Amino acid sequence: KQWYQRRVRGVLDVGLSRTSAGALVFGVLKGAVDGGLDIPHSNKRFPGYIAETSEYDAAAHRSRIMGAHVSNYLQQLIEEDNDAYKRQFAAYLKEGIMPDMLDGVYAKAHAAIRADPSPAVKKDNPADYKHKSFKKQRMSLAQRKGRVAQKKTANQAQQNLNR
């Protein structure tokens, strides 16, 4: 084989994620395999695999990729709890996306990815942007001594009340 005909070989490392049938990690595996990577795998973990007959139904997997399960959930929410539908899928309502339109939306998204798979360019933060810090602010010696003195007076006041 020529160098450009060889596929990149990889191994799926699931880490700590659960490996139950239909798990998201296997969707990632399927995408990587469809994208041309050579990863040893079995169809047994993909959505659409029927364990009783030991057959893989590619149409069921495709319907899952194209969002049929999301469409069914939308339809169920519309029928049972319209308020929950409006709350959970407000962005879909804003865009005018109805449950029967999801297949087309997903197909358009897949076509756009195939046309240009490069990630979108990230916007640069303004010059005065400050990242949020979750670390506790360090206190000076004077602040620490003041805090200790404050706790002592509060503790003494509490003891005086208990007497």
Describe this protein's structure.
The chain has seven helices and two strands; from the N terminus they run H-E-E-H-H-H-H-H-H. It starts with 23 loop residues before the first helix and ends with a helix. The protein is elongated, with a radius of gyration of 28 Å. It has 163 residues and is mostly helical. The longest helix is centred in the C-terminal third of the chain and has 22 residues, at 141-162. Helices cover 50% and strands 2% of the residues. The relative contact order is 0.06. It has a two-stranded antiparallel ribbon with strand order 1-2.
Describe the protein's topology:
Blueprint: H1 24-34, E1 49-50, E2 55-56, H2 58-65, H3 68-80, H4 82-88, H5 90-95, H6 102-115, H7 141-162
Antiparallel strand pairs: 1-2
Q: In a few lines, what is going on in this structure?
A:
The chain contains 7 helices and 2 strands; from the N terminus they run H-E-E-H-H-H-H-H-H.
What is the count of β-strands?
2
How are the strands ordered across the major sheet?
1-2
Oligomer: single chain
Fraction of residues in helix: 40-55%
Beta content comes to under 5%
Task: Write down the overall mean pLDDT.
Answer: 86
Low-pLDDT runs: none
How many strands, which pairing sense, and closed or not: the largest β-sheet? 2 strands, antiparallel
- What global shape is seen? elongated
> Helical element count?
7
Helix and strand sequence: HEEHHHHHH
Radius of gyration: 28 Å
N-to-C CA distance: 91 Å
Structural class assignment? mainly alpha
